[in-house]
Amino acid sequence: MCFGIPMQIKKIDRFIALCEAKGSEREVNLFMMQHEAWAVGDYLVSHLGQAIQKLTQEEAETAWALYDEMIANTVAPDA
Fold first, then answer.
1. Half-sphere exposure (CA, 13 Å, Cβ side) for 14?
2. pLDDT in tens, 7-47
3. pTM of the full predicted structure?
């Protein structure tokens, strides 16, 4: 199963944004969503290195909380 990861834009260079989520930084390609007006501080969903959706801060925080809850409730299989 694949998840899109909510990230915050820290820097933009043409169609490449340096984004951060929970302390991890990644480059995200904005080309597929070039019709959007992007700015430092905006939130997006990154999937396979591509921006696929613009988010509000509240939407990003909700997604992060849900992902944290899923991780916390994951039980490792017996070895």
1. 0
2. 999 999 999 999 999 999 999 999 999 999 999 999 999 99
3. 0.86
Residue 51 belongs to domain with CATH number:
2.30.30.140
d(C-alpha 34, C-alpha 59), whole Å: 21
Q: How many domains does the chain have?
A: 1
d(CA 37, CA 68): 29
77 inside domain = no
Residue whose entry in the numeric block shows the structure tokens 């925080």: 61
Query: Cα(16)–Cα(19) distance, rounded to whole angstroms?
Result: 9
Residue 46 is assigned to a structural domain of this protein: yes
